[in-house]
Amino acid sequence: MSDTKARTAEQIEADIAATRLRLASTVDELVDRANPKNVALRQVEQAKAQVFDEQGQLRTQKIVAVAGAVVGVVGVLLVIRRLVGRR
């Protein structure tokens, strides 16, 4: 605020009131974002977006890739368990 003109008390009060409104709005938005219910809803939507495309169809390639990875990890764990069990 590099105004060279002197500001009146009313102008300063109006600026303070506007700043308070902006700050209150920002705080309300942050409280809404941090609400655990809203965080959970966003996480559910994000998970659904990983499994379903925009038309609501399953993303089969992604599901097959995840299932393959799970099967691979389980297989590796079973092999390790067998090797350790032989000792």
How does this structure look, described?
- With 87 residues, this protein is mainly alpha-helical.
- It folds into two domains: 8-50; 55-86.
- Helices cover 78% and strands 0% of the residues.
- The radius of gyration is 28 Å and the shape is elongated.
- InterPro entries: DUF3618.
Topology:
Elements (H helix, E strand, L loop, with lengths): L8 H26 L1 H16 L8 H26 L2
Pfam families: DUF3618 (PF12277)
Keywords: Membrane, Transmembrane, Transmembrane helix
InterPro entries: DUF3618
Keywords for this structure?
87 residues; mainly alpha; 2 domains
| Gap from first CA to last CA | 77 Å
Helix percentage range = over 70%
Order of helices and strands: HHH
Mean pLDDT: 90
Task: Give the low-pLDDT segments.
Answer: none
Number of helices: 3
Portion of residues in beta strands equals under 5%
Q: Which oligomeric form is depicted?
A: single chain
Using only C-alpha atoms, the radius of gyration works out to 28 Å
Task: Please state the structural category.
Answer: mainly alpha
Summarize the structure.
Keywords: Membrane, Transmembrane, Transmembrane helix. The protein is mainly alpha-helical and 87 residues long. The chain is built from three helices and no strands.
